[in-house]
Design a protein that fits this description.
The longest helix is centred in the middle third of the chain and has 23 residues, at 152-174. A 6-stranded antiparallel beta sheet has the order 2-3-11-6-9-12. The two termini are 36 Å apart. It has 278 residues and is α+β, with helices and mostly antiparallel strands. The radius of gyration is 20 Å and the shape is globular. The protein has 10 helices and 12 strands. β2 and β3 form a beta hairpin.
């Protein structure tokens, strides 16, 4: 299984894969074997609880999942563990990294909601919303079994895009976004946020991101604080510290190697930084 190699063993589970492993659907969580914990996602994963309950720890936060609750995990989320009740039932969709990147340009206008996927991964659905998600799930399950090779990629992508827009619509209904038209400050913040997600392992300087955006560090800090309620430095430190914790807990890398992976000048500087923020 390419897209989850080293994370989940599907050898004994009932699942279905889309063309070229573009998507994986499954509903037998008890048959899935996590090979290591914690683990960091590199692909979007959507889960809907239909019965029973589950406990999940994501980015050091504990969540209790119950019926009609939707879990949306995005790349860079770190899952520390989970457990579920004996009567638990749910459905799951995992999308390959390649496909998710191909779909992203079509939904850039919804970036505020995509951010909420990271900050608020669990949302409670109404019965109607749950039924709507299940209709998509069952439709994709049926279509993938019969999809023809000639236009397989386009068909799978179209189905996934429809699901994603449904999820975005649900999140929009549950949170106060108004419309998707953004102010200049919001545009600046979302540009900063996107760059941060891509480059936090190499860059921790507000000056660096400000230069990339062709604005002053002071202006960037002001904008980020105004839009998000947190400073640019706070955002940067959260990403770096969470990654450091994950690497220290789950890898065989030495402290010196972790400091090098995160682009610190030396182990001593990394140690001081880590102690300051943890």
């Amino acid at each position: 299984m390419k897209i989850l190699k080293g994370i989940i063993d599907f050898s004994d589970s009932e699942h279905i894969r889309g063309h070229n492993d573009a998507v994986v659907l499954f509903d037998k969580l008890d048959l899935i074997k996590l090979n290591r914990l914690p683990w960091k996602l590199s692909h979007p994963l959507f889960a809907l609880c239909l019965q029973g309950s589950a406990s999940l720890k994501v980015n050091l936060q504990d969540y209790n999942i119950r019926r009609n609750e939707l879990v949306t995990l995005m790349p860079e989320h770190i899952v520390h563990g989970y457990s579920c009740s004996e009567d638990f039932k749910g459905v799951f969709i995992v999308v390959s990294k390649k496909v998710s990147e191909e779909l992203l340009p079509d939904i850039t206008s919804a970036l505020p909601i995509l951010m909420d996927f990271r900050q608020t991964p669990v949302v409670t659905l109404s019965e109607e919303e749950t039924a709507s998600i299940m209709e998509y799930y069952e439709f994709i399950w049926r279509k993938i079994r019969t999809v023809r090779a000639h236009y397989a990629n386009k068909q799978v992508n179209s189905m996934l895009l429809s699901v994603l827009y449904e999820l975005l619509s649900i999140y929009k209904d549950h949170f106060s976004y108004g419309n998707f038209k953004r102010s200049r400050n919001e545009e600046t913040f979302y540009s900063f946020y996107s760059m941060l997600e891509a480059e936090y392992r190499k860059e921790r300087s507000v000056v660096y991101f400000a230069n990339r955006l062709c604005i002053s560090p002071k202006h960037l800090s002001m904008v980020v604080k105004k839009v998000s309620g947190r400073t640019a430095s706070d955002w940067i430190d959260e990403y770096v510290v969470l990654e450091a914790k994950q690497m220290l807990r789950t890898t065989t890398l030495t402290v010196q190697e972790v400091s090098r992976e995160l682009n610190f000048a030396n182990q001593s500087f990394f140690g001081k930084y880590f102690k300051k923020h943890v």
